């Protein structure tokens, strides 16, 4: 198979390549094409991948493509993980949010909307290019905000675009890890969850970064009630410590970690305000230092530098949320990044070689969740085979979740319309209606500050 990686200079590219190197099955990826608009970052990633491939027989051949059309032409799968505006743009969003006293996280609320407004035009150009030069390819989207980008891209590519995220997988593995420790499920149950195999079935539903685990079947038995009746087990993994056992038992489900921004919005804003630098500023400084250092060393040293930088990046993930919840550090097992890379590989094998797999993906609703449009992109378990992904039955959203999901879905679709119709009023509507932006006045100020920061938004009139 041929895989094109868009955003090929991105920091997490080695995670994908590491998974490809470990795949020794028939029909594996034999060529990886890297495309990026930043030549310095692209050169650094090429250097690291070369070092990683040295000791692996028959490693995928690495190609650098300066033109988007050349990267995707003839590819079987296209993996998109671009960041329009880079980490500098994320830092700017967070600075604006801090000035206004709202959350600036890059995938939800103001930060997610600002990110989408400047990123969607590029994502849509990718979709149009793919439809023009390689309409038979499959686009695997990891570009954030993943739900919005996937839904917008579907207008051009239809079912041949699939959104992925590693959050639901990580959640299920951590829950199962706690249950394994307590002897409620067999050891090793968590290993293959979410990447296609095993005896585990997730009852998980919602939108990207806005979902709930309502059931967890192991060999036909729902083991989630065993977890919910044990406060000590609930607070033995990351989401349990973030939300607290009392709140999880009130909900009767385990929320995606990103729902902490909704359930504890005020506490997180306050913790963010106390931090010396926001997450975006930290990443901007860290990655700038990494790419400059990688430019001046040999491939093997660049690979070691990348691993050390990655470790520090994972240690500081969602630091403000942990501070707001009174949680000091992440567990050692949570520092192993990835998950989405294994999902991407499972998708490719399932489709290309008709190896059925059950995966949590962002796909069209098609009646899976009532009260949402048929064509709305949702995040649910799917069966994937040569025909592509099909949503599996899940429990209806609980009453406390339904209104929130409907509101955020309306916001997502309004953001897409704002970009495709070049309308400022729709961008402000999306901001004003989002639960994490408190009012029309704040929405207007936020948009005006974003438009002053990002020239791309001048097109919205």
TrEMBL record:
The record marks 106 as: Increases basicity of active site Tyr. The active site is at residues 166, 258. Residues 204-437 form the Glycosyl hydrolase family 4 C-terminal domain. Its cofactor is NAD(+). PROSITE patterns: GLYCOSYL_HYDROL_F4. Binds 1 NAD(+) per subunit. Mn(2+) binds at residues 165, 209. SUPFAM superfamilies: LDH C-terminal domain-like, NAD(P)-binding Rossmann-fold domains. Keywords: Cobalt, Glycosidase, Hydrolase, Iron, Manganese, Metal-binding, NAD, Nickel. GO terms for biological process: carbohydrate metabolic process. Pfam families: Glyco_hydro_4, Glyco_hydro_4C. One of its GO terms (molecular function) is metal ion binding. It comes from the Bacteria. Belongs to the glycosyl hydrolase 4 family. PANTHER family: 6-PHOSPHO-BETA-GLUCOSIDASE, 6-PHOSPHO-BETA-GLUCOSIDASE-RELATED. This is 6-phospho-beta-glucosidase.
């Amino acid at each position: 198979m041929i895989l094109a990686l868009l955003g090929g200079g991105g920091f997490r590219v080695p995670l994908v390549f590491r998974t490809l190197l470990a795949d020794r099955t028939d029909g594996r990826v034999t060529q990886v094409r890297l495309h990026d608009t930043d030549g310095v970052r692209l050169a650094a990633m090429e250097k690291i991948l070369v070092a990683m491939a040295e000791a692996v027989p028959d490693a995928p051949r690495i190609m650098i493509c300066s033109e988007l059309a050349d990267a995707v032409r003839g590819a079987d799968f296209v993996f998109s993980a671009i960041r329009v505006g880079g980490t500098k743009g994320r830092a700017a969003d967070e600075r604006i949010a801090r000035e206004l006293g709202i959350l600036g996280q890059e995938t939800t609320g103001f930060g997610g909307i600002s990110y989408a407004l400047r990123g969607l035009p590029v994502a849509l150009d990718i979709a149009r290019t793919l439809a023009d030069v390689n309409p038979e390819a499959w686009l695997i989207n990891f570009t954030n905000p993943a739900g919005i980008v996937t839904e917008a891209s579907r207008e051009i590519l239809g079912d041949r675009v699939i959104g992925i995220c590693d959050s639901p997988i990580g959640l299920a593995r951590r829950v199962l890890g706690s249950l394994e420790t307590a002897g409620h499920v067999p050891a090793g149950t968590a290993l293959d969850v979410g990447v296609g195999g095993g005896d585990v079935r997730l009852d998980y539903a919602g939108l990207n970064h806005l979902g709930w685990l309502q059931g967890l079947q192991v060999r036909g038995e729902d083991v989630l009630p065993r977890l919910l009746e044990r406060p000590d087990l609930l607070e033995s993994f990351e989401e349990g410590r973030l939300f607290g056992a009392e709140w999880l038992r009130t909900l009767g489900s385990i929320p995606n970690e990103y729902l902490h921004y909704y359930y504890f919005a005020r506490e997180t804003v306050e913790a963010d305000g106390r931090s010396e630098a926001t997450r975006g500023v930290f990443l901007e400084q860290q990655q700038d230092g990494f790419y400059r250092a990688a430019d001046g060393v040999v491939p093997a040293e660049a690979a070691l530098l990348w691993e050390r930088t990655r470790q520090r990046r994972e240690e500081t993930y969602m630091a403000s949320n942990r501070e707001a919840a009174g949680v000091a550090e992440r567990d050692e097992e949570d520092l192993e990044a990835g998950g989405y890379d294994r999902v991407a590989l499972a998708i490719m094998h399932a489709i290309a070689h008709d190896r059925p797999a059950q995966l949590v993906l962002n796909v069209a609703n098609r009646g899976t969740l009532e009260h949402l449009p048929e064509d709305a992109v949702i995040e649910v378990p799917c069966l994937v085979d040569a025909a592509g992904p099909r949503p599996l039955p899940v429990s209806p959203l609980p009453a406390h979740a339904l209104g929130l999901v409907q509101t955020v879905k309306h916001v997502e679709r309004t953001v897409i319309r704002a970009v495709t119709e070049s309308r400022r009023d729709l961008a402000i509507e999306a901001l004003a209606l989002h639960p994490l932006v408190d009012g029309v006045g704040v929405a207007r100020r936020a948009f005006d500050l974003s438009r002053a920061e990002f020239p791309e938004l001048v097109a919205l009139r």
